[in-house]
Amino acid sequence: MLVGRGMAYAQRKNTVVASVVEVEVNRETGRVWPRRITVAHECGLIVNPRALKNTIEGAVMQAASRTLYEEVQFDESNVTSVDWASYPILDIMDTPEEIDVLMMDRPDEPPLGAGEPATKPVAGAIANAIFDATGVFLRRVPFRPERVKAAMDAKA
To answer: Which of 42, 43, 46, 95 has the fewest CB atoms found within 10 Å of its own CB?
Structure first.
């Protein structure tokens, strides 16, 4: 098992988000597991901390799913991923052990965006963590096991 950490930062209007992701990469299969995700989130005045934390966690999980698995598949003329059985998403075995959310309350500022901004740095942080673990920098999502394995094999 290879372990790496990566960080990425994003700003959407006045909301600032940084994510640090620790991944485990299985060198035999290429499977990437985002073991731990830490998010620092600053979006002005926090009106409802519990709802904000839940929103950030949900956004991070959605972004991790898109980064690691989600991709619409096509054949020569049709979409072939037409249902949940044929459209891959993150499942319970791939969810992080821990998501830490650090929220910076700015009572002197108005409330700002909270949902979508948290998705922005996740793919970059996962890509940087994979690079830290394997020395391979992937630029095309999703980072499915077969793509990660092929990139590691090509580097070897």
So the answer is: 95
The whole domain housing 60 covers: 2-155
Number of independent structural domains in the chain: 1
Q: Which amino acid would we find at residue 15?
A: T
Q: What is the pLDDT of residues 113-143, one digit of tens each?
A: 888 899 999 999 999 999 999 999 999 999 9
Residue 132, both tokens: 């830290």
What the block records as the tokens of 102 is 């650090």
Question: For residues 21 and 87, what is the distance between their CA atoms, to the nearest angstrom?
Answer: 25
Residue with tokens 């673990």: 133
Q: Tell me 95's DSSP state.
A: S
Q: pTM for the full model?
A: 0.93
